[in-house]
Write a structure and sequence with these properties.
alpha+beta, eleven-stranded antiparallel beta sheet, single chain, Thrombin, subunit H, seven-stranded antiparallel beta sheet, binds arginine
Length: 714
């Protein structure tokens, strides 16, 4: 029996290892050797140089990193127009909104350039990618301790970035590790700080379907917003100024009006944040049994409180809209991921991959020396993680999920300032940021969140990992967390703008150190640093070693398999095709949705499925104009089998000619385990059809001047 199982396992692993056309987030400068032939087979017409070229303009120059990589955007005009998702512009739109100008509710359209509004985030373009593996790994050996290895690597990162950075030219660089520390590249960026909001549909369209439809197909969301990048008169980066002019990109994407059909070539460029495809069974078990359920629980508790207040008045709804969206997006993500990991038996698949690896690793004396201990290292590392990770998760999700606690942490700089001058400077910076913080802050909400979060921490974290002072406080109050929170908030300055401003006008470290919320923050932080972090750091060092050797070994074991490196917020390409799927036995989902589906979901007055009156009128009259498909319908969203993840949001979907056909914004419910294990039969990218975007701009919002700026391919 056993032998049959082993045999079956090996067959299974063999399947899993075969190159899947669609899996893989590839580095754009390496496609020539890695993937180009297959891209040609699937229908690409561009040359590798048209895709990535350091010396001449190429497709990569139209791809934009938002902030440090929270989302992706693409240049769609010669005059600096950038397209991204509505949920990527959400915080910017929210910040610019008030009860008088509710751009979330009503949308926003700049009818002339001077109406465009400073967005509050910067964007970066990739200048080049350079292989620095030799520089980073020179002289590193397997016998050196994990700690001295990572210290050496950190030092080299610094030396390398120093070579490339040029602050005056807004050029900065980052070294990133690939294949779990087996390859290193430096990425050089140029940053443009002046970005302005140009257009956004009302939230009813941009977030149509809300949490109910989030992470799901069939989808009918108009998830786009538009910004313009500004530059100095020399086209170089410049801080915001009314003298700035629209940035002229090296390349912008022509926009295709041709539409998409099943099996059409589709590729996506963008900045995927992180995946964990080489996670082992130990990690999967930990995720499904411990980590994810607790994140879901804590987030749900927070969302319930936000929602209770947000439905009470418009000002509060605006204030908490972005915070709510941020918490709820991954609340639902973790629910789906746990379900998916279990349903698709990812644990079992990983386990058999590890068994196969170990069999291979121990079958040869040299291999055994290098790889023989890898699986044990994993096991040991995760034992420690099982013991401590929850503490770390709860510090992030629960304790620092209390806004006033996170806010108080910003005051630590003051307490650790060496001179009166430093104190004054820190206080001045805090005073400048305070109005922004308090604009979107409601004391009553945060006090309730505080009570709830402290309770979860107390209930779920082993008592020997809790701060002793906190435990005492709970005992003294007989577990009345509302009372604890009330007391904290009553006596602290942190939840009161006037008190904060008064304090910052005359900053006093002694007074700060007596503040109960500041103190609470410090208590948790110090406890974490002393009682949790050292053990976690040690476990992570040995897990890093295990991962590096595991991936190195896998590549040696399967030399014909093309391995892609995990996402790490660097520019990647994923290619494939427009494709439908079968989510369950006897169920088929086609690859696109239409306006009929938008109207089928419409629920008047609903929080998630309401629609603007003008929109309904146009839809009922079927005024689709030139944006209709050849089938006469207005197509809304479509699917492709591209491999994307968070950070890719807003990425362009590009056809074989290099033209824009859509904007990627989500993944599908049946493949939520995708960041850990790609499921090629199930995993799809959900994108807004570019023709729907154009229809909303031109017909719905009457902002056709923006379409006129684009290069339209008929
Ligand atoms: N799940 C999408 C992503 O992470 C975000 C979709 C935003 N829409 C929403 N209803 N929350 O990229």
């Amino acid at each position: 029996m056993k032998r049959i199982y082993l045999l079956l396992a090996l067959v299974f692993v063999g399947f899993g290892m075969k190159a899947k056309a669609d899996e893989g987030m590839w580095l754009p400068h390496l496609i020539q050797g890695q993937t180009y032939d297959e891209m040609v087979r699937l229908g690409i017409k561009l040359t590798p140089e048209q895709i990535y070229d350091v010396n001449n303009s190429s497709l990569k120059d139209a791809i934009v990193r938002l902030g440090g990589g929270f989302c992706t955007g693409e240049m769609i005009s010669a005059e600096g127009l950038m397209l991204t998702n509505h949920h990527c512009g959400f915080s910017a739109i929210q910040s610019l909104s008030s009860v008088d100008h509710d751009y979330l509710q009503d949308g926003f359209w700049a009818m002339k350039r001077s109406d465009e509004l400073a967005a509050g985030f910067s964007v970066s373009f990739l200048v080049k990618i350079v292989d620095v593996t030799d520089k980073v790994t020179e002289g590193l050996t397997e016998s050196m301790s994990a700690q001295s290895r990572s210290e050496k690597i950190r030092g080299r990162y610094k030396d390398i970035t120093k070579e490339y950075d040029d602050k005056d030219a807004y050029i900065s660089s980052t070294v990133k590790s690939f294949y779990e520390g087996n390859k290193y590249y430096v990425f050089v960026y140029q940053t443009y700080p002046d970005v302005r909001l140009v257009g956004a549909p009302p939230q009813s369209l941009g977030k149509y379907g809300g949490d109910t439809d989030n992470w799901m197909w069939p989808r009918h969301t108009c998830d786009f917003s538009m910004f313009r990048i500004y530059a100095g008169k020399d086209n170089k980066p410049a801080e915001y100024s009314t003298d700035n002019v629209p940035y002229k990109p090296k390349h912008h994407l022509p926009v295709s009006m041709k539409g998409v059909e099943k099996d059409d070539y589709a590729m996506i460029f963008g900045y995927p944040g992180s995946t964990d495809r080489y996670l082992t069974s130990y990690g999967v078990k930990f995720a499904t049994d411990v980590d994810q359920p607790s994140r879901v629980k804590v987030r749900r508790a927070k969302l319930d409180i936000y929602e209770k207040y947000m439905t009470q008045d418009q000002a509060t709804r605006i204030a908490y809209a972005a915070k709510h969206a941020q918490v709820s997006n991954y609340w639902k993500y973790f629910i789906g991921q746990t379900k998916g990991l279990k349903r698709l038996n990812v644990y079992g698949k990983k386990k058999s991959e590890e068994t196969a690896f170990n069999t291979w690793a121990t079958a040869d004396a040299d291999r055994k020396k290098l790889y023989g201990d890898v699986i044990n290292l994993y096991e040991k590392g995760f034992q420690t993680k099982h013991k401590y990770q929850l503490s770390q998760t709860y510090i992030n999700e629960a304790i620092f999920g209390i806004e006033s606690i996170a806010y108080a942490a910003g005051f630590r700089g003051l307490a650790y300032s060496e001179s009166d001058e430093d104190i004054a400077a820190a206080a001045a910076a805090l005073a400048m940021e305070a109005p922004g913080h308090f604009k979107d802050f409601r004391r009553a909400i945060d006090e309730e969140v505080c009570a709830e979060m402290l309770m979860h921490f107390y209930q779920d974290i082993p008592v020997d990992q809790q701060p002793a002072d906190f435990v005492k406080m709970v005992t003294k109050s007989k577990g009345d967390f509302k009372k604890i929170a009330a007391k904290l908030f009553k006596k602290s300055i942190m939840a009161d703008q006037e008190k904060v401003m008064a304090f910052l006008a005359k900053p006093n470290v002694k007074k700060l150190e007596k503040d109960p919320i500041y103190n609470m923050m410090n208590t948790f932080l110090v406890n974490y640093l002393v009682n949790v972090r050292p053990a976690m750091a040690e476990a992570n060092e040995s897990l890093n070693k295990a991962k590096r050797l595991y991936v190195k070994g896998l590549m040696e074991m399967n030399p014909d398999h093309r391995y892609a490196s995990d996402a790490n917020s660097t520019m990647r390409v994923t290619y494939g095709k427009v494709l439908d799927y079968f989510p369950a036995d006897a169920v088929h989902y086609s690859h696109f949705t239409t306006m009929d589906g938008v109207m089928e979901k419409y629920v008047p007055g609903d929080l998630e499925f309401d629609l603007p009156k003008r929109f309904i009128d146009l839809a009922e009259k079927r005024e689709y104009g030139k944006y209709a498909d050849k089938d006469g319908e207005l197509h809304i969203c479509f699917l492709s089998n591209n491999d994307i993840t968070g950070g890719n949001s807003g990425s362009p979907v590009i056809n074989g000619e290099g033209h824009l056909i859509g904007t990627a914004f989500d993944g599908n419910w049946e493949a939520m385990s995708g960041d850990i294990a790609f499921e090629d039969q199930l995993q799809r990218t959900i994108s807004v059809d570019i023709r729907y975007t154009l229809w909303v701009i031109d017909v719905f919002a009457k902002a056709g001047h923006l379409v006129d700026e684009m290069t339209i391919i008929k």
